[in-house]
Specification:
The structure is a single chain. The chain is 36% helix and 20% strand. The protein has 754 residues and is α/β, with parallel strands linked by helices. Among the domains are: 53-81 and 99-244 and 259-323, Nonribosomal peptide synthetase, condensation domain (Chloramphenicol Acetyltransferase, 2-Layer Sandwich); 343-508, 3-Layer(aba) Sandwich (Rossmann fold); 724-754, no CATH class. The protein is elongated and about 125 Å long. The structure holds adenosine monophosphate and magnesium ion (MG).
Length: 754
């Protein structure tokens, strides 16, 4: 005990003790006794204090409890709780403890709302606070089942005189809250109140015993919420107000008190109740080594948002309550998605190609196998092939035409011929297994397939090079089959306008010019090929088509890049890694930009890249369902994280949590895509289309749900965090494990596969 004289008549009294001696409740008892003794001394009388009730009574009481039934209670209370909910925004590398505090003082109006809800619902203020907190925790963790710690007084009502005993009674117990988004706030609170009543008889069990009977064990919760139901300050001022005046007592007044306490938790929410006409105060006490001040401020703002949300909308489904502030909503939904660029509308791939033919008919459009092809040559040959198709087949607009060819100039000519015909192509890799080829033919009902046989018959005849058909921007350009989780691939339908947007964005954003040379090496069954093919053809630069053998040989690829002074190349990240390891990158003087996409780009690949070169490496992200790519990130040497970046032109990205609401920056959610690049849907799969492409009820916008997890970083870039489902990538190819399971389980002798 230390008394410091601050100035005459003003003192600070410091009282330090280990928690094992007593808990916060005792302070009231002790301060009361202090006043009694003080008064007696002033009056020169002997203080008469109430008899001490020994702590051993409590020990005896403990021994009488039915431990087994309490243990069983907690075991069942926590059964099925496996994934511990945690406080978000924790810094990755945190050591030591540096105290930090964030205070939230609720306004009189807010407190009145809370009080009136608590009264009408028959719940305590503690339950209210716990209920709101549990919901926020659920939103942060995308779950409807959370556990956090709470401190209870631990003074059993059945123990005589317990309220005047000195000692350590308080305990930390888990509070589990399970709810459904369709429940109302009121229902959650009332259920929580019931649970609180039933758990009271078991508050005495040691936390370590409770934890050891749960799946997460000592990681059951990472923070506590303390409802301070016995504030020293209040008691003191009460005692003084009620105390006798006179005999010098009025000369003593307590001006304030402060309890400094350190717990084992890096995050504690301390709620001081509303009483004695005072408002509710919420104190967030945290470890600054683990949490940034601005993040704790955001948590505080979210909590406040929900405190009022609960009182104002107590009878609405929980999932409709948003925890974001208006400013955050504006930032996440609008500011980050402010990508509008007015491009000329009405353009299509064949239309743009035709413009290049007019502008530079004799420029080299394509280089393949040592031969050059001009725009005019490609135009004429594709015109002839289109004429052949129209001569032999009745082709209405948007007719599907298969293309099953190996890589050569004929592949390019065929693609152009189909598009000029006003038809959409369906790529079929000739090296696919027979069954897959047949499946695509049957599922897409393509009218005809351009293969080597068809080309032979075409070359045997004479056809006019002039064949132009009207093509609208909302017409289909291709139907691309991707792996399906239920066993069969699905055809994704893409329209010209989205592709044109994607290509134009790329051309302008990266400053491409007619002098650029693009390497075409991606197979045409993968949509990355679409920009490698049509960026040069439609916007006017040279394309170098790589043959099948070169694609997988880093050394040959590097030689090709050198020989043709290629300035742009794309690699899926694993292929880039192998390229870095096996090719002489430093000798690739012509390269101006390298793009990766298709799967997560590892930091080591970025680091490995810049160790050898300064050529910029761009990370692009996007699903087939949204015209190749929807976000971009410019990597730099020395970065320790590779985000997928920001939305491209006329594209919106939303990160929505399990209730479909925007997730706060830093909170994981599913990436949703809106804007001009969205596919029309899946061919002949209305149910699947409706499931994956939905109109968001609040945003009133058509969105594609990617199944990708991500979160907003503080700088407005998105970080990719894996998949919600079992989709994997193998060398950039999208594979649903469900399709593999389906294939295996249909083999003879196999009952089931996982
Ligand atoms: P695909 O339709 O073949 O383009 O595959 C799309 C999927 O590939 C996305 O939904 C992601 O899961 C993954 N993906 C594509 N690009 C990236 C990237 N840059 N980083 C991480 N994952 C990516
Ligand atoms: Mg993609």
């Amino acid at each position: 005990l230390t008394v410091l004289e601050l100035k005459p008549g003003e003192y600070e009294f410091i009282w330090t003790h280990h928690h094992i001696l007593m808990d916060g409740w005792c302070a009231g008892v002790l301060i009361n006794e202090f006043y009694q003794i003080y008064r007696s001394l002033l009056n020169a009388t002997t203080p008469v204090l109430a008899p001490v009730i020994p702590y051993v009574n409590y020990i005896r009481w403990l021994a009488e409890q039915d431990q087994d039934s309490s243990q069983a209670y907690w075991e069942s209370y926590l059964s099925g709780y496996e994934q511990a909910a945690s406080i978000p925004f924790r810094k990755a590398d945190s050591e030591g403890y540096i105290g930090g505090e964030e205070k939230l003082v609720l306004s009189g109006e807010e407190v009145a709302g809370i009080n009136s809800l608590c009264r009408s619902a028959g719940i305590t203020e503690n339950t209210f606070m716990q209920g709101v907190w549990s919901y926020l925790l659920g939103r942060y963790n995308n779950t409807e089942d959370v556990v956090f710690g709470a401190v209870v007084s631990g003074r059993p009502a059945g123990l005589a005189g317990v309220e005047n005993m000195i000692g350590l009674f308080i305990n930390t117990i888990p509070v589990r809250v399970r709810y459904a988004g369709s429940m109302t706030a009121l229902e959650l609170l009332q259920q929580l109140q019931q649970d609180a009543i039933s758990s009271m008889a078991h508050h005495y069990v040691k936390l370590s015993d409770i934890q050891s009977r749960s799946v997460p064990g000592n990681r059951l919760f990472d923070h506590i919420l303390v409802y301070e139901n016995y504030p020293v300050e209040e008691l003191v001022s009460d005692g003084l107000a009620a105390g006798e005046q006179g005999a010098g007592l009025d000369a003593l007044s307590l001006q304030g008190s402060e309890v400094v306490e350190q717990t084992n938790y890096d995050f504690t929410v301390l709620v001081s109740p509303s009483s004695h006409g005072k408002g509710i105060q919420v104190l967030f006490r945290y470890n600054r080594a683990c949490f940034a001040e601005e993040d704790v401020q955001r948590i505080s703002a979210h909590f406040r948002q929900l405190l009022t949300g609960f009182t104002a909308h107590a009878s609405q489904p929980l999932q409709t309550l948003s925890y974001l502030t208006a400013a955050e909503q504006e930032l996440l939904l609008h500011t980050y998605n402010d990508t509008a660029v007015s491009y000329d509308r009405g353009d299509t791939l064949p239309g743009l190609f035709r413009r290049q033919v007019e502008l530079q008919p004799d420029a080299t459009a394509l280089v393949y196998d040592g031969r050059n092809f001009t725009y005019r040559e490609l135009d004429e040959w594709s015109g002839r092939l289109a004429s052949y198709l129209h001569a032999h087949y009745t082709l209405s607009g948007e007719e599907l035409i298969g293309i099953k060819l190996h890589r050569s100039e004929w592949l390019i000519i065929s693609l152009l011929a189909v598009l000029k015909s006003g038809c959409a192509y369906v790529p079929v890799d000739p090296s696919y297994p027979e069954e897959r080829q047949v499946y695509i033919a049957e599922d897409s009902h393509y009218k005809v397939c351009i293969d080597d046989g068809l080309l032979a018959s075409f070359r045997a005849g004479e056809y006019s090079p002039d064949c132009y058909h009207e093509v609208r921007e909302d017409q289909l350009a291709y139907v691309l089959y991707t792996s399906g989780s239920t066993g069969q691939p699905k055809g994704c339908m893409l329209e010209h306008k989205g592709l044109v947007n994607r290509l134009r964005w790329m051309w302008e954003h990266y400053g491409f010019t007619g002098g650029d040379v693009v390497l075409q090496k991606t197979t045409f069954t993968f949509d990355v090929s679409v920009w490698e093919l049509f960026l040069p053809l439609c916007f006017g630069c040279k394309m170098v088509l790589c043959d099948d053998d070169t694609v997988y040989s880093p050394v040959q690829l590097a030689a090709l890049i050198r020989a043709h002074e290629i300035s742009n190349a794309h690699f899926v990240p694993v292929m880039l890694q192998s390229f870095i390891e096996h090719a002489d990158i430093a000798s690739l003087y012509s390269l101006r930009r390298v793009f990766t996409s298709g799967e997560a780009l590892p930091v080591v690949t970025v680091t490995g890249w810049y160790r050898q070169t300064e050529i910029p490496l761009y990370n692009l992200y996007g699903p087939t369902e949204a015209s190749i790519d929807v976000s971009y990130y410019d990597t730099k040497p020395g970065i320790n994280k590779v985000p997928i970046g920001k939305p491209v032109a006329n594209t919106q990205l939303y990160i929505l949590d399990n209730y479909g609401g925007p997730a706060a920056a830093g909170i994981t959610g599913e990436i949703h895509i809106g804007g001009v690049q969205l596919a029309r849907g899946y061919y002949n799969r209305p149910a699947l289309t409706a499931e994956k492409f939905m109109v968001h009820p609040v945003l009133q916008e058509r969105l594609y749900r990617t199944g990708d997890l991500g979160r907003w970083l503080p700088d407005g870039n998105i970080e990719y965090l894996g998949r919600l489902d079992d989709q994997v990538k193998i060398r950039g190819y999208r594979i649903e494990l469900g399709e593999v399971e389906h294939a295996i389980s249909h083999l003879p002798g196999i009952g089931a596969a996982v």
